Amino acid sequence: MNRYRWNLLPLVPDEHLAKNPGLAPLVTQLLYNRGLSEPSQLEPFLTADKRLCGDPSRLPDIEPAVARIYRALLSGEIIAVYGDFDADGITGTALLVQGLSSLGGKVIPYIPHRLTEGYGLNTTALERLHQQGISLVISVDCGITALAEVKRANRLGLDIVITDHHSPLEEIPPATAIINPKRADSSYPFSELTGAGVALKLLQALFQNLGKEEQLDGLVDLAALGTVADMAPLAGENRYLVKEGLKLINAAPRLGIKEIISQAGLKPGSLDAESISWVIAPRLNAAGRLAHAMTSYKLLMTKSTQEACSLAVWLEEKNAERQKLTTKILTKARKQILDQGISPLLVAADGDYPLGIAGLVAGRLAEEFYRPTIVIRTSEAVSSGSGRSIPEFNIIQALNQCSRLLSQFGGHSQAAGFSLPTKNLPELTRRLSQLAAEKLAGADLRPQLNIDAEVALPSLSGNTFNTIQMLAPFGRGNPAPTFLSQRAEVVNCRTMGSNGEHLRFRLKQGGVVWDGVGFRLGNYRDEVSSHLGIVYNLEVDRWGGEERLRLNIIDFAPAR
Asked: Domain ends where: 186, 211, 242?
């Protein structure tokens, strides 16, 4: 049985092809599959220019936020930018510090330690900042659920401006301003900005008021890094931010990113969204997972080539350590889940699970078993966990229904984190399992794989790859085009990788031979027959200084 439910999307109607005679039929099909069929929609999407950007004045509380920051700049107050410890929060923090400093602001960054302080605004840190003479704190990528913390800050006389993109609760904190496009009263046309994206919009509003909006162009690389790293949909304004940010990263990367590119062996000038997802973001995240995220912040901000090199080397080492630890904990958590038996909700809990990689392990298990998965680090008094889910189950909504059991929680429909008294853990597990069983009853728990078009392998030669790059950057919300080819002849197939976890193919159809790689498909080697139906993306294989196209095989089945 296929690992996925294959869903071949409908053919674009002839009338839509006729409306867009200047586009290749395959491009029109791909755009149609993404909900874009009218000429008035296509040109802005393909151009991905500033027409995709919203007016920051439409964000809730933008005026009081700008007014309070402007007053702080004029009076010389010290401003603290308090960011989350993931790549989105780190880049957003760097973006605000750099932007406000360019206006002459006295700005310091604050990023909490994942293990000792936990996610989001915390009272001890706010009290310490107040003692240091801070009078204004601007949050990045956190704060929307910090009711008690903001109330305490108010009592101290500490003003809080929240910038966040996570889902608000019914009650929002009594902050000076809360800028979040997901607020119920928001009229902003695009709700899927990341933490770094919201921070950029705050700066845009401030710069516009001061007649300095052109200075924003030098910060869009940070917004792009945060947007891709947080797996936000690459549609609407995010598409513009990432496209422009990639231009800057490829043309003139900041020193720290330049050193990451060098250490990771990437080709300068040819980075795409996938380069951020698979190479740059994991390294920026490695610091916060295993040590302190301030190292990654310093890397983004440094003006010293020597410091950039040493920090990038350290992050490279930490990322390698993170990879080994992830593999070790994944093996242990996977065994625990299998011993418990597969159920609608998968839970792995242990005192030895590092909180910094719990989300990574949960994501890998959710992908393998196609079930919402929670990985929890337990201790005697307090336990903390990370959850990753599937489209059929909204994990933050489920946690919200269990809020009385939790000390803290936050996140999105597909990814969330929480902490709670350990005594409440059995009840939380029972309640979440019940919610998952009810919601997923009768569901075919295999991921659906949308296929853009059925094609023959010979038709992909020539300029096809360059043509479909018109739709880049690719990512969530605008996935890399996926194709189906039936009855491809298997010339050769073998496992590859240190433990044989991948498959390498040579496939032939119509006299044309293609190389293909099936990542993490090594366990399915025995299911390979002489002719296959294959579902895949086209990608560039960069190896040994050479570039060539290959098939990135997502799934396969014996030919019909």
From this structure: 242
pLDDT tens for each residue of 141-176: 999 999 999 999 999 999 999 999 998 988 999 999
Q: In what order do the strands lie in the sheet with 346-350?
A: 346-350, 373-377, 382-388, 415-421, 408-411
Indicate the Cα dihedral angle 322, 327, 330, 331, nearest 10°. -150
SS3 285: helix
One domain for residues 144 and 39? no
pLDDT of 397 reads 94
295 contacts 287 by C-beta, under 8 angstroms: yes
Sign for the pseudo-dihedral over CA of 30, 52, 97, 83: negative
CA 21 to chain CA mean position, Å: 35
Cβ neighbours of residue 95 under 8 Å, at least 6 residues apart?
196, 199, 200, 203, 219, 222, 223, 226
Q: What is the 3-state secondary structure (H, E, C) of 319-381?
A: HHHHHHHHHHHHHHHHHHHHHHCCCCCEEEEECCCCHHHHHHHHHHHHHHHCCCEEEEECCCC
Q: Are residues 86 and 211 in the same domain?
A: yes
Distant-in-sequence, close-in-space partners of 507: CB < 8 Å, separation ≥ 6: 457, 488, 489, 490, 491, 513, 514, 515, 516, 532, 534, 551
Tell whether 174 is covered by a domain.
yes
Q: What is the pLDDT of residue 3?
A: 80
Q: Quick one: three-class SS letters along 244-271?
A: HHHHHHHHCCCHHHHHHHHHHCCCCCCC
pTM passes above 0.85? yes
pLDDT for 2 beyond 70: no
Tell me how many domains the chain contains. Answer: 4
Residues 148/29, Cβ–Cβ less than 8 Å: no
Same domain? 487 vs 367 = no
Q: Which two tokens stand for residue 315?
A: 């992050």
User: Which of 173, 207, 242 is the endpoint of a domain?
Assistant: 242
Q: Are 356 and 327 in contact (CB under 8 A)?
A: no
Q: Are 495 and 525 in contact (CB under 8 A)?
A: yes
Domain with 374, as residue range(s), is 342-439
pLDDT band at 532, cuts 50/70/90?
very high
Cα distances (angstroms) measured from residue 69 to each of 83, 92, 107, 115, 255: 17, 16, 11, 31, 29
Q: Answer whether 318's CB lies under 8 Å from 282's CB.
A: no
Q: Look-up: residue for tokens 């990654």?
A: 296
